[in-house]
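R.M. (postdoc): so does anyone remember the format we settled on? I'll just put the structure tokens first.
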């Protein structure tokens, strides 16, 4: 006997029941170690989740994949590591801790312990660590709730000593290749976080549509060469009309750029002033103000003109003007590869502030232009800028605009809507600022000293070829060796790799992150990179004892000083922390450990490490990761081993609300993980993820969940319920439950064509699911399972109902049905267990009494059960049935009413279909004879019945149906007897009716009446 099922099964309670069971009875532990002795390895590498907030339902999508394949490979007998990872260091944690403490700036952090900077930083770093621990615990519990099995006791943390020191090793290798350098550049900068935002971190979603005030400015021309001089008035003053959307950068103006080949016109406006601007933009900018076009020349004619800027009187500006009289405030021809000039907006004359824009900086560098740094780390104007000094450039944009207006430098100020980048963590609008930062060079050949020692001629050639290649070239090669799913992943990665700048790896003014192991001598400028804790200890000349026992974080690490290799000066570590993507990129080297514990195998046993490297599989959401995790992994592995860090990546899209918009609390379409789990149930959620096409964005919400529950989950449950109820009624005995998995047992000597058919379907399904999952295609597997479950319910069971009816005559046939169903349900629960771990456990445990479905093995399939021809026949039969039902609907005669003959024409050969199949069709359609393509197919001899007889038969069927419905309404069990009163006209068929509706007594009366 199986455990009977309650009428109203609570699936959420069921999930909690199994969670408790798995962890209390050590099932998860047994699962993790099930294949310890196996020599087959499946290496999954987890992309660390940021341990900074509770999980969202979007995390659950990826985490379903991260559990699905390990569960599948566990069934297949592969040894695995089952390691989850947490991403810990970086600005995002700092920002949240600052928010919690109500801190506004760097100064507040450094004064957490009043008056004690060292203690303040130590406290702040500890608070960051604690936040990570707090949320990693919450995320662990949420992951467990998702039915995700992993080695939760030994998750990796990117803040661990091993991880940080392994990055040091990576950076040291870069250094030895000569790839680490300090560069000055105009970088995107967050004035709140006071740190540079690397190109990797500038995601499209952080560009916001905002309205700023833009200005058309008038720059008075100083000299007028003969070729542009106008004849009419010698004293006429002309202006360059220049547009900018970032007025705060105007004091930094150095030059005006134009396109040599464009036409530029000098235009007189109504006030009598004359402006130079691109001919194509005259109408656009000046509109009705145009009085006349004085002249038109090519841009190159204007190159070399000097002009006066609005801020020339400020000390910082005039200083630069004096130092660079030749190219200060000059008109230049642009390099269109760096700064292309638009004829869509603006004036065709572009304000160039070398210190305050990436393109400006590059153009300035190329043309040898000077620059005027104008803002500090918080975007306050620097000293030397007169009335503007120490005022905030970003918070008070009117400062500049008011001045421009008052002093006649503005032609027009207008509101301008554009996409402007914000800090990815705190959402403050970015500025551009010149800063000295540390970079990894993408396009530098490694230093010659690093050439490997090679012997043969051939090897020399090969070695040279390899050794002169730049990091960018190497990374491109490595990326191409990876299998990207979907395939466009490779193109996107290559696009990034081909176009990205050098990798900005430093973060200034921050506290919680990798301590970049760069030691730069303040005296002679020489710098070195330390590659390990051991090396630091060896080179330390001061402070080791203060650091010993602490993690390599601020402030303790900075107690350690070394000696300059060149001049002997005492040298400190640079103040910067590392780019957080370094942390996640190194994990194939730092986190692969024996039983996920102890020292990294890469360090202590490379041969063992090799068993897990490269990882077979990683999976992450695509948007962003090309620039981030995928990029960082490839960079780290290219430098460390010049090999791909993983063989295959499955990328997936973005999860949106079911209204198609991004999830937002304020829009009411956001679902928190815990809420979703306890309203939808995680089985249903997991199924939604599994059946989703990963290359498309996913719409997620309660309505979608209801559809999936109805169309698949409940159908599966009802099948299982039907089986359990009837098998219990009939006291169906499992002879040897353990052996049920083995398809050879119990399932031979099938005689019923329906059993043969469904077993063939199932055999094929198991193979298909295995193949799909091995191809990392969960969607195809899930959709095929859905089709099977639907076939099982709407055809196999539907056509088998009479076989299991309580008073059915054929006991053997009934047993065959139970055996078939049992075999399928047990094995189905096994193949479903990676997808929906809870309901499959429920089914499996009740059916087998074994310990857990998650300790099972993948079903061994008996190929002989597969009968392709039979499946084809059944498919044809079902098409005929479909056509027959459609016809009945058309002529409006219900199935209950038998019909004498079905005559169908089909466009395939019906000859190959066996009689038993036609019998099923006949039964399903309730007809007496079936004629296909003008030939009687079944029965062999045509049955002739009068209309009267057919009508009577229909009435009896109708009556039986009514009784069945009443039984259902009364909540009777299938084997519960009733006392029945039927109208006189059915008295002839009394016995038949009694048997079909399980009545122990039938009385002839006036009306239909049922009692217990
Ligand atoms: Zn910020
Ligand atoms: Zn030195």
């Amino acid at each position: 006997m199986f455990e009977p099922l309650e009428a109203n099964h609570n699936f959420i309670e069921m999930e909690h029941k199994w969670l408790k069971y798995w962890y209390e009875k050590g099932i998860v532990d047994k699962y993790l170690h099930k294949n310890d002795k196996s020599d087959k390895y499946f290496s999954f590498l987890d992309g660390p989740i940021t341990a900074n907030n509770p999980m969202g339902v979007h995390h659950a999508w990826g985490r379903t994949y991260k559990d699905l394949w390990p569960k599948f490979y566990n069934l297949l007998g592969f040894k695995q590591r089952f390691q989850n990872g947490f991403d810990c260091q970086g600005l995002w944690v700092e920002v949240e801790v600052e928010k919690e403490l109500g801190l506004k700036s760097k100064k507040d952090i450094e004064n957490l312990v009043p008056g004690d900077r060292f203690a303040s930083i130590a406290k702040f770093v500890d608070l960051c660590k604690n936040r990570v621990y707090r949320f990693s615990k919450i995320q662990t519990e949420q992951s467990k709730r998702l039915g995700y099995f992993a080695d939760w006791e030994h998750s990796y943390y990117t803040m661990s000593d091993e991880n940080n020191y392994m990055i040091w090793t990576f950076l040291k290798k870069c250094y030895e290749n000569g790839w680490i350098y300090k560069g000055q550049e105009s970088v995107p900068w967050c004035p709140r976080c006071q740190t540079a935002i690397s190109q990797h971190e500038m995601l499209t979603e952080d560009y916001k549509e905002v309205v700023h005030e833009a200005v058309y400015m008038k720059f008075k021309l100083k000299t007028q060469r003969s070729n542009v001089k106008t004849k009419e008035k010698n004293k006429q003053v002309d202006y360059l009309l220049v547009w900018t959307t970032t007025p705060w950068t105007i004091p930094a103006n150095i030059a005006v750029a134009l396109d040599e080949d464009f036409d530029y016109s000098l235009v007189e406006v109504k006030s009598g002033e004359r402006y130079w601007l691109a001919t194509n933009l005259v109408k656009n900018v000046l509109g009705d103000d145009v009085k006349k076009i004085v002249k038109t020349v090519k841009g190159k004619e204007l190159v070399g003109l000097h002009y006066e800027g609005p801020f020339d009187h400020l000390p910082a500006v005039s200083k630069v003007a004096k130092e660079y009289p030749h190219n200060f405030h000059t008109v230049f021809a642009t390099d269109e590869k760096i700064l292309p000039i638009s004829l869509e907006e603006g004036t065709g004359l572009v304000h160039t502030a070398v210190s305050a824009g990436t393109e400006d900086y590059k153009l300035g560098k190329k043309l040898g232009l000077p620059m005027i740094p104008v803002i500090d780390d918080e975007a306050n104007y620097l000293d030397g800028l007169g009335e503007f000094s120490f005022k905030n450039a970003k918070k008070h944009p009117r400062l500049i605009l008011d001045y421009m207006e008052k002093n006649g430098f503005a032609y027009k100020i207008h509101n301008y809507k554009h996409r402007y980048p914000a800090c990815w963590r705190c959402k403050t609008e970015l500025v551009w600022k010149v800063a000295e930062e540390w970079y990894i060079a993408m396009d530098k050949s490694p230093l010659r000293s690093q050439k490997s020692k090679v012997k043969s001629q051939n090897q020399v050639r090969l070695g040279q070829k390899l050794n002169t290649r730049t990091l960018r070239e190497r990374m491109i090669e490595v990326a191409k060796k990876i299998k990207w799913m979907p395939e466009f992943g490779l193109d996107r990665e290559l696009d990034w790799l081909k176009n990205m700048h050098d990798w900005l790896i430093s973060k200034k003014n921050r506290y919680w992150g990798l301590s970049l192991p760069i030691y730069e001598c303040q005296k002679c400028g020489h710098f070195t990179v330390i590659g390990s804790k051991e090396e630091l200890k060896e080179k330390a000349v001061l402070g080791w004892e203060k650091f010993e026992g602490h993690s390599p974080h601020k402030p303790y690490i900075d107690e350690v000083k070394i000696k300059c290799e060149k001049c002997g000066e005492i040298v400190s570590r640079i103040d910067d922390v590392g780019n957080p993507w370094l942390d996640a990129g190194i994990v194939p080297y730092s986190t692969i450990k024996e039983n996920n514990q102890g020292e990294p195998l890469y360090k202590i046993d490379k041969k063992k490490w090799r068993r897990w490297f490269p990882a077979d599989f990683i999976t992450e959401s695509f948007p962003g990761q090309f620039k981030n995790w995928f990029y960082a992994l490839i960079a780290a592995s290219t430098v460390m081993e010049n090999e791909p860090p993983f063989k295959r990546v499955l990328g997936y899209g973005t999860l949106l609300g079911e209204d198609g918009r991004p999830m937002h609390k304020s829009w009411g379409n956001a679902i928190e993980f815990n809420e979703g789990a306890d309203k939808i149930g995680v089985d249903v959620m997991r199924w939604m993820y599994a059946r989703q096409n990963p290359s498309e964005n996913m719409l997620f919400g309660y309505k979608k969940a209801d559809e999936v529950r109805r169309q698949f989950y409940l159908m599966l449950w009802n099948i299982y319920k039907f089986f359990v109820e009837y098998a219990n009624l009939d006291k169906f005995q499992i002879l040897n439950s353990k052996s049920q998995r083995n398809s050879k047992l119990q399932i031979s000597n099938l005689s019923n064509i329906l059993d043969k058919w469904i077993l063939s379907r199932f055999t094929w399904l198991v193979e298909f699911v295995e193949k799909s999952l091995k191809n990392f295609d969960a969607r195809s597997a899930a959709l095929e399972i859905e089709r099977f479950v639907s076939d099982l319910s709407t055809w196999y069971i539907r056509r088998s109902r009479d076989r299991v009816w309580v008073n059915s005559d054929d006991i053997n046939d009934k047993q065959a049905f139970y055996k078939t169903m049992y075999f399928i349900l047990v094995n189905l629960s096994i193949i479903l267990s990676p997808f929906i771990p809870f309901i499959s456990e429920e089914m499996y445990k009740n059916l087998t009494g074994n310990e857990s479905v998650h300790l099972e093995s993948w079903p061994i399939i008996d190929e002989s059960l597969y009968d392709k021809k039979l499946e084809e026949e059944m498919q044809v039969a079902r098409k005929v049935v479909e056509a027959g039902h459609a016809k009945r609907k058309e002529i409006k005669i219900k199935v209950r009413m038998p019909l004498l003959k079905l005559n169908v024409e089909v466009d395939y050969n019906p000859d190959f279909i066996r009689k038993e199949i036609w019998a099923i069709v006949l039964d399903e359609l309730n007809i007496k004879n079936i004629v296909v393509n003008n030939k009687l197919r079944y029965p062999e001899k045509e049955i002739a019945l009068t209309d009267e007889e057919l009508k009577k038969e229909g009435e009896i069927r109708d009556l039986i149906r009514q009784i069945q419905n009443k039984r259902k309404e009364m909540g009777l069990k299938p084997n519960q007897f009733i006392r029945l009163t039927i109208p006189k006209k059915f008295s002839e068929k009394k016995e038949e009716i009694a048997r079909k509706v399980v009545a122990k007594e039938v009385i002839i009366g006036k009306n239909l009446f049922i009692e217990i």
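R.M.: ...and that's the designed sequence above, right after the tokens. Also worth knowing: The pocket of zinc ion (ligand 1) is lined by residues 190, 192-193, 423, 425-426, 428 (CB under 6 Å). Residues 450-455, 736-745 have pLDDT under 50 and may be disordered.
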